[in-house]
Every structure is written in C-alpha cells, then in structure tokens.
Amino acid sequence: MGTLTDIATIARWEVKKSFSMLGREVLPFAIILFVLLVLVTGFAAQTGMHLQDGMYNVGVDDPQIAGLLASDARFSVYVMDSPVLLKNRNAFDLIVVQGIVNGSATDKANAAQKTLERDYAKYVNSVYNTENDLFAAYPLWIDTQSVKSELNFLSTQSGQYVSANPRRIAPVPEGEVKTVPTPSPALAISQEELRAELVQSNTKNTQISRYTETLSTTSTSMGNFKTPAQLSPPLPFDSIILIFVFIFPLYFTSQFFMMSIMNERIERKGEVLLSTPLRTSSIIIGKALPYFIGMVAICTGLTLYIKASPVIILPLIPVIFFFLANALLIGMLARSFKELSFISIFFSTVATSYLFFPSIFANVHVISLISPLTLIVLTIQGSAWTVTDYLYSTSLFWLTGAVLFYIAARNFKEERLFSEKKLVSRVREFLSEILSQKHPFVSLFLLSGFSIPFIFMVQMMCLVLFFNIPMPYSLVFLLLFAALVEEIAKGVGIYTIYTRDPAFLTWKNLILACAATAIGFLAGEKLLLFVTLAQISDSVFGSILFLSLGSLWLPFLLHFACVTIVACCLKIWGKKGFVPGLAVAMVVHCLYNLYFILGWLG
Amino acid sequence: MKIKHLSIIAKKEFRGLYNEKTILLAILLQLFIALFSSFLMVGLTSMYDPASLSRYSHSRYSIGYAGNESKILTYLQTSPDFRVYQMDLSTAVAALGQRKLAAVIYVPDTRPDALDPVKITLYTLQNDLQTAIVDVKLKDIFLKYEKDLRDIRADRLKEELVSLQIQKTSGGGDFYEFVYGLLIPLLVFMPAIITSALVIDLITEEYQHETLETLMSTPITFVEMVWGKVLACELLVPIQAGAWLLLLMLNGIAIENAGLILLQVVITSLILILLGTLTALHYRERTAAQFIFSTALVVVILFSLALPANPLNLITRLAVGTAGMDQWLLLGGTIVVILALGYLTQRYAEKIGKTHNTR
Predict the structure, then answer these.
(1) How many interchain CB pairs under 8 A, A with B?
(2) Does some domain include residue B166?
(3) pLDDT of residue A168
(4) B53 inside 8 A of chain A by CB
(5) Which of A391, A599, B123, B326 has the fewest Cβ atoms within 10 angstroms?
C-alpha cells in the first residue's frame, strides 16, 4: 500500500508542476495555434497542396486540350500554333500537336507523360460516368476473391517463387479438392449504385483526400467489384496518416516526460526527491504515470474521434511503454538541450521507421506484422488478428521497454544524474551500474540474455531494410550486419567490466566471463525464439539471424569463441583492442554462418 | 553591435556542438536515410505508384483459366509474363491454395455485345507480395480486354471524347515526381527545421543553466548574444543542405540550379530561425518554447504549402529547371518577412537586455 501512495503522491506533484508551468503562458498560445491549425488545414484542403506546381512545361495547339491539362497544376500549359510548337519543341517537356502527345526521351518527359496519362484517364472516366448505358462504358468488371494459402508464407520469403519454372502440364493439387461454386455471371449491384461509386472513386483520386479518407471505417457498397483500372495491389496508404495521427502525439507527450526528467537534473530539484525515503522505482513510476495516462487518453480520444474499434489501443500500449522508457533514459543521459534534441530526433526517426516501414506491406506480406502499427491498419480495415499476432508484434516493445526502465531505475541516483561526462562513457557507466560487483558472472549472463530483444529489434530493422535489395546482396549485407550487431552486444559487457577494473580480467576470469556471456546469449536467444519468432526463423533470412535452432553445443561454441576473441584482444591490447577484436569476431561469425547456410542450401 | 562579439558567441556555440559530438547523430541520420534511399524508393514510391512494384520481378506466372473461352485467354497465352492452363475451377482454386498457381481466372459465358457487363472472377492468394505483382500484370490484360469490349459496344455510347493519343513511354520516370516533387524539397528544408529547433535550445539553455549572468558580465550585450546564436544556426544550414544535395547527386539524381537552391534555402530558413528565437526569448524555458514552436511550425509549413507559389514548390521547380523570373519575386517577399521578423527580434532583445542591465 505504501508504495502505491508514494506513486500517487509523486504523480500528483508531477501533474501540478507541469500544469502550473504550462497553464499560465502556454495555454492561451496553444489554443490560438490550435485554432489557426484548424483554419489552415481547412484552407489547405480547399486550395490543395502546391508542392509540385509547374513542374512540367507543356505546349498545346488545341485550346480544348489545353483546358483539360490546365486543371492539373503540375503542368504549365502554353497554347501556340503547331509550327511554332514544333520549332521550339526543346523548350517543352511535352508537346501535343493534333491530338498526339510527343515527348523527349528524358526521365522528366516520361514522368510528365505518365501524369498526363493519368489525368486523361480521369477525364475519360468522368465522361463515361455520365453515360446512360453504364455497361457500354464499363463493360468489364472484376470480382476479386482471395484464397488463403495452405502453405506458410515462408516459401516466398525465402526467395522461392510459387512456381519458378512453369511446366507444360497443368499442376495437380494434392489431396482432396473442395468444390468451388461457379460464380454467377451477374453483378449483385444495380447500375446506379455502381455509378455513384465510380463517381466517388474518380473524384477522390486527388492527393489529399486519398489520405483523409483512409481513416473512415465505412466500407464501400461496391464490395469486391472493380473495373480493370481500379485493380491495383492493395498497398495501404493508411500507414502514413496513422503515423501522423497516432504516433506523433505520443512522441510529443514523451518529449514532455523527457524534459521533466532533464529539468530535475539541471535545476537540481531531483536531489530533494532523492533524499526522501521514497524508493527510486516509486519516483520513476510516479513521474511516468501521468504521461502514460495522458498518452492512453490521447489515443482513446483519437480512436473515439475516428470511430474505430477500441481494440486499437491494445497494440499502442506497448509502443507508449517503449517511448516512455526511451524518454526516461534519454532525459537521464543528455548533457544539454541540444544533445537532448539530437538524441530524441534520432531516436524518434529510428523508432518511427521501425513502426512505419513494415506496415507499408500490411496487406501484402506477413513480415509487416513485426510492427504494431500493422495491427492498427488491420483493425481499421476490419480484419481480425489473433493473440499470437499481438504477441508477435508487441513482445519486442514490451521486453525492450522493461529492460530500459530497469537500467534507468538502477541509475536514478545522484552521481549518475548530475555527472557531466561524455555520452559514451555515461552509457558505459549506466551499464556498469547494472553489472554487479559481487556476482559479475551472473550479471554478464543476465546482461547478454537481456540484450537479445534489442539485437532482434536492430536485426529486424535490417531485415526490413535489406528486404528490397536483390537477393544475393541482401543476404550478404544481412550476414555481415547481423554478425556485427551480435558481437557488439556480447562484447559490451566484458568491455564495461574491463574499463571498471582491468585487473579483474585474469585468464581464468576471462574464460568464465566469456562462458557466462555465451550461455546468457544462447538462453536469451532460445527463449525469445520460443515466444515469438518461430514464424520467421525458418526462412533463409531467419536462418542467418537465429541459426541456433538445431543443436545446442555448436552455437554455444560459436558465441564462446567470438566473445573470447574480443576479450583476449581487450586483455592484450587494452581498450584499443576492442574494435579490431570485434572485426575478427565478426569475420569468424560470418564464416560459421556461411558454412551453415552453404551446407543448408547445398 | 560588434561583429567581433557575434563571432565570439557563434564560435562558442560551434565549440559546444563539437565537444558534445551528438550533432553527429543528426548527420548520421542523414547518411542513414541517404544510404537506404533504395529502400525509400521501393517502399515509398510504390505508394505513389503501386505499378512500379512489378518491375522488380521477371519470372513467368502460372495462371489457371476456368469457364468460357474469351479473348483474355489469347492475351494470356501470348503474354511473356504468364503461362496459362485451362482447368476446372475447383481444381484450379485448390492448386492456388497450395501455391501451384499464382492466380485463377473464371470467365462467364456473357456475350461481348450483351447488355449486361462481363463479370470476371479473379482468385488470388491473401497476404502475399507476389499477388501484388501478379495483380499489376493482369491489370494490363484486363484493360486491353476492356478496350475491346468498349469498341464492340461503342455505338451505345453518346458522349464525344476529346481525343488524345499517348504513346507508350520508353520506361523510366516512375520515381521522378517523388524524388523531385517531394524528397528534394523536404530533405533540403530539413536542416532549416533542425537549426530553428537548435536556436531555441541554445537560448533557453543560457536561462535554465543560469549561465546568462556570467555571459552578461562580459562586454557582450544581450542583443549581441541573441544575434550570435542566430548566426551560428544560420551558418549550419548551408553546410547541411549542401551535404544533402551532394549526397543526392552522388546517388545519381541530377539537380539543376544547386546554387540557387542553396541561396533560397539559406534565406528562407532565416524565417524559421527568427521565429524560433522569438519563441525562445518569450518563454525562456525549453519545454514550453519547443512545444509552441513546433505547433507553430506545422501551421506555417501547412499554410505556405497551401499557397500557390511557396518556397518548397520553388525548390522543386529550381531542381527540375522550370523556375522563371518569379523566383526573385518570391525571394523579395521572403526578405521582407525576414526584415520584419528581424526588427521584432532586435526590439524584443533590446527590451529584455535592458532589464538584465538594470538588475
């Protein structure tokens, strides 16, 4: 009970402090700015975005076509006689003479021509939409049906196409064939309903409305029926807008938390708090609580506003937790405001890209599930996701958030908060704090075990980033990078211990420390694999990242050998041996992986 | 105001940045994004133009064809992208489920000149990257067939179209609009945004770290201190923006008028930096100042984007080489705004400076 009251008290202080500061001066301005923002948004929605105005110069000899083109602000249209146009054709990206479009062979002209093509298609549609006989204008309709794959998704991910070499004879399915009902040849929707949909989809093709309408959850009455022109891969545009709507407010609020921590440090008010008998965990939880509640409230408000299912909040909570953990640590680490800005911008970009990039493929590939944002996209689309999906996409956020909070809690004391050392040495000090003096080997074991979620997060990002590079290169990059990340993570603990006390690293202790690190790493790897990553671990990419599924002693030997290389370099050459040691360990790691993958492929 | 004092302040800030070295993170970020621009290209441009995805695949796909014969069958058979098997619908869908086919098409017996539309059923795999590519390739064939049907039913159409003949392009140009119309203006203006946030940090830091009193006891006046910080931030803009342009050029993206772009960015960024300075002088506390400034920034950027001729658009037009004389007009307008903001800053700083001197 006592702890809970403590937390409540701290939380109340925190709320009072930030409100008294914000209330007086900031609120009036904030309200004015908010009103301005609404006005400007309305203005922008009306006039449109003018980022790409006048990109292309087009010469036209027919005023009617000129009018058609001028409706797109990207074109600067010049009306001239055809002989004049032909003479000056180099001054234009495109010229339209007697209804024929001519462009030079440059990229710019091609881009202009593609834009023109789309504009013209839009114009044609707008004319056809008004036809009495709609089915003469749109004679072909496609009914799209999706079939669930009975095999797992890994076959495409490992670079094998469904049927790379089609044979002459039609493929024969194995097992029993379920009867598929013959589709009826008639459309289930009336002509006028279809027309309304066509008119709507034709007008909404503008850049802004495309984004604003992604948040409406109402599905169209058209169902699966599409004209051929509407048939495009289901790449969602939702992710961008979701980032803006959900993640940015979270990022903003976590900034306040970051600043609150920083302010405790620079104004030295934190000392008073620390001198009270309150436990540090109570202080941290109490300080973070108002922000956590605020962020959840913001998300709930947004969810209610867009009338989406409240299930959306569930995947956001681990993201909030992770953001707060990072904000706390950054607030504790930064030495000055500019450093705070740079680190937080860097962190937010990396975190945002981790959240954002996979969700681009929300309807395309299961890899997208590594981002909680995908669950939101799916919820808004009305697709269901399972508890396993939830665990899969959020467990890394929960784990890393928890570890970061633990590190921060252990370091939340005077000599850490008010020191003025360099960033790298501060990070090392933070780590040194969680490495116990009494039980160094247990600490090393735990440290390397708990570094696994971070490693996976970094490696997952690489997986996503390298996913689009052609096959052999993506493997090579991933191979090198995965090895390097793992070696750094394993080496860091021993490096910290060595810097704290070089004498500790006797040969016997060195071997023991390396063994502890290797076992910890292996245990963490196994555990996380078991919980979440079974889906990915079977593909070629997966086999590089998490090779150790098979036997136990081989990966142990690998981890042990690599970390021993780093430790020996440290012992022999001191601190400057760390980087060369890492390089050698990386090469050994890569060779091991290569041998296994080659063996595996062969 | 003495130039020497300004440069002392600017140098002090540069030294601070150099000592902390965390500005490296900002630069690292730029590199990170530039290095992975290939991913950006594929990921983001596919949102602009999903059809660009199909370029990344060169294999032949097996298609199951069920139902009545039609011209689609001929199109599929002659296409280099597909291999077609005429199959029973149930067998074909089962084969699709086992990934032995990439898609299944069912065509009903509706006559091409019937009153009703032809409704084709397309079965594809759920949640599959390959499906996206097959969709794009099938779309071309469906469009061709739609055109055939339209021609057959043409006499039932009433409206006359403005005719425009567009030849097939020689390829390329997919990423053009994305790169020049979005990436370049945003990347080039990013340093302006970063430095305007930086000036707030620099000014509020003097207040919150209580170093202002010490600084005021030197011959440097408060006004000089403010302008010195503005100068330091302003000098960072061309360095960072120039680095962006260079990186883009190294990536093989030709940029015209790089010098003029730099000029525009350097001058326009002064607006943001002065806005940041005013906010910082008003609040003298980082949290409040940064919050108000970043909200104001969104308003300002959104507003300027809604204007027909705006600095971001000018960057686009300069980069593609279609900017005319009106760029100087815009520059003139920008300078007027800067002069107004500069005057405000000067007066405000003088006012605050007096209270510091009398104390």
Answers:
(1) 423
(2) no
(3) 65
(4) yes
(5) A599
